[in-house]
Amino acid sequence: MIKVTDLKKSFGDLEVLMGVNLTLSMGETVSIIGPSGSGKSTFIRCLNLLEKPNAGRIEIDDIVIEPPNFPAKIVQQVRLKVGMVFQSFNLFPHYTALENVAVGLMTVKGFSKSHARSLAAEYLEKVGLADKLSNYPAHLSGGQQQRVAIARTLAMSPTIILMDEPTSALDPELVHEVLSVIREVVTEHTVTSIIVTHELNFAKEISDRVFFMDKGVFVEAGPPSELFVRPTKDRTKAFLAKFLPNDDFTI
Amino acid sequence: MGSLFDIEYFFKSIPTIAGGIPEAMLITVIAFVVGCAIGLVVALLRIYPKRGLTRLAIIYVSFIRGTPLLVQIFLAYYGVPLIFIFFKAGHYVSGISAIWFIYISFSLNVGGYMSETIRAAIVAIPKGQMEAAYSVGMTTTKAMVKIILPQAFYSTLPNLGNQFIMLLKNTSLAFVTSVPEIMAEAKIIAGRTSKFFEVYIVAALLYWAICLVLEQILKRLEAHYGLKR
User: Where do the structural domains in chain B lie, given as residue ranges?
Assistant: First the structure.
């Protein structure tokens, strides 16, 4: 369970999040959509404390985070529960695909080298990269790199996975392979997934709920069948009109 | 009047002067290793500030970069004994070999320069690397050791090599404390025979030869680690 109450974050004078509220239940898959600079990325980065929110409250299962206090122990607990997939993959360039997945298992979970490596190989197989174990990131395509990154995240067995525009940095022809891996992950429903994305059709297909964010708040949320078809707020309508010009959502 | 260049003496003096190579290498390796350790600590203090310690680190780097190595050697040579005397341990000083003052001054010197090299290398690693390490649950220390420092090391390898070569050549200054390295050996026999040019040409060629070997080793190291990225 995730419960976010009145979360606020600013960078200097720039207020990015102006009181965000959200409640998710276990196993739910939600997408966050909205214009650039609306605070989507900042919001999910607050959830694993890569950004420290200024005010509000985050509850993740039994862990409570209340700014401005972020005890190292709590931060650690949060990050063990919450995994993240980044827009620019952020694989470790000095490690092979296998080592990228195994390094967290060894250093964080304390698994033995052989155990970590065999587990890592399993996860890489799951994302369709069984033949790329010993490749360095520089020798993988963008789509393959992102799949390694997803395997790295899954291997830590988080209960929540955050995805920050996981396909935005990919060549169009590689988007598909990453989306199908994500689809597989979220449909298993063993994790709660929060996906920031501009792939509206994908969001529509896989999300239990879609949140529309603008100017640092959630303007509107609902199942895709409602939000995409019958948005109630003008800002949502204007945004969707730009992205889905062919979809008829007017009543 | 004899010949301008006594080629026979030139060859004859090689073994004696080359006898200083082990000492020169020892100073280089010790100062490099200790200097790297100091440099790393200082670099981390500047990246993760710890109030007073960071200020101290800044002053240290500024002093090392702002004063000549030769002066630093003399300061260690005459200053360290004063510290012993201050702590009422003056009677130990005479038992300390001059080489220790060289190790100390060279290590501190390398540490000062190295801290800036290491800091630059760490800061140049993309922010996403640390974030990715955090996102799999690593602490800052673990992320530094497993993710950031190895990458910083690979990327700054050419700089480290440069510093190593500079350091090797700087060991020639150690002769002022009569540590028997290459330059000291050369000076001793030159003083005896007044064949200065022959002797210093030998010294120059020895330094050059060692540096050529080091350059080759570095090239291999870079090629080896460069492949991964």
Answer: 22-179
